[in-house]
Structure prediction request, 548 residues.
Amino acid sequence: MSMKCAFFLSFFLLFVSCRVNIPTAILGSARSKSFQISAGNIQVPHERTLLWNDTSEFADSVIREWADMPMADWENDGKTAAPRILLARLHANKDIPETNKCIQSLVPRGVTGSKWWLNPKGDYDFTLTTLTTILFLFGEKPEILYPETMDHLVNVLLTDSGDKFRKHVPHTLGLIIDTENHILMTEGSRYLKNQWLALHGDTSPQFNNEQNGMELRLHSFLNGLTTMGLYEFNSLPYIGYTIAALLNLEAFGSEQIRTDARNVLDYMNWCYALGSLELNHFPPMRRRYEKAGVRDFSNNYHTAFMTTWLHFFKDTLPLPNRVLNHAHTFVASCMPYRPADEVVKWQFDKGNGYFVQFGHGPGATPEIYTAGKNYLLSAGGSNRGESSHIVPRPICLFLKDGADEVEETVHLYGPTEDYMKWNNTGVFQNLAVAAGPVHIPENLHPLSVNGNWASYLLQDSITLIVYSSEDFGLFLVEENVETKAYFESIMKLNPDELKLTSSFVSHNQQVIQYNVHAPHRLWVIQSENGVEVNRKVDSWPLMNGVFR
Prediction:
């Protein structure tokens, strides 16, 4: 049977056996085509003047924890655990002879690219990424990584090199684009192996990244991530592997590629900073649906990286004491990248507040955040059909209270618990609306209740006004006002509860109209003071907003 026949037969069997549509099973996992998206009016900060420590007690403890683990089975755990344990032992200068002997005994456990029926040994790029880190951190330290071990690593275990820049899933006849985490891990490792060989005396044109085109192709791909954004935005679990691949390029690439990778990391971290408060971050995400039930904030892989980086900061920061994903804290502990100044600042100091929107292009969901001095209101996004792989989240109100999970926050979603039906984009300035009731944590007690209305005085002089019914919820956040008078004013301005389900009048007479049952391609908010807003989220810029 020809390869082409086998390819189409495999797709037919996948459709029949799994009873899922093919775009959802494969095409929905990666960006199918490039598109143009405007930059918006918010610039990504890159300036670095802050002082960082070379080591941190937290990072050292993470490395020791990995170094003390028993060696994982290479065949079954070689994707992530085994190479990380080897890296940790070298980093901790522990069991060096045994670790070198172990590396010399290993053989490649697969091939690169997404794993599927016609590529059953795929996913070796996960392994390659950590092996590449080992090579560059210790390849010139023969007392740690022995010369014969380094030779085995380069010539046997690092399987991909040369000028082939592959964007497609193996054995799909070039029809299926691979996911960006796989492209970054595979092609980043290929590029860096070339880089190593060229820097260490191999003059073959196939390993010269300038001559073989790898430099230009990788530059183009990385530049695309800062102009179109990430397809797998906020992904569980893939954001962690995307960051790991970028950290290798930022540390070990050419000057141009290091800058490109740093720019992508800075963009991702700036989005994180504006979308989080004291490392609480619960945004909509693309991939995977089985992670939709995650409710705790510690199970955020970007948070694991950010927390680890901030433990190196010279000044004291209010870092939460929580158990994080230790695999990603370990990777961050080993690498030299540190966030830009403004990224550090805006996670903890929201200035006078802001309202920002992040666009993710056609067929995606936007991210929407509004902040005051001491709070952050995070929209949850909307699913765009099964093949979109988008997981919407509740609209959450974050305070500086150390909350660890959604149930400890004021949050809002609807119309049912089926997240595929949610359009949780109803956030505007300090207002949130959705087609369901407002969920209040058990420890919060109202100051006043009037029918479906209630008022709360929260920490840091934050007033919360809530309207909650079975099929409609609204809450309003305001700082430094007299709660009782503010509550009475809001109820007086909004006496018609039926009208409230589509229109709200604020304390300063601002009229906001919305449709909480809006199609998922549209922003729930319709107009401000009679002026229509741009509701077509597919056309939103990368980063747009207003800082007060």
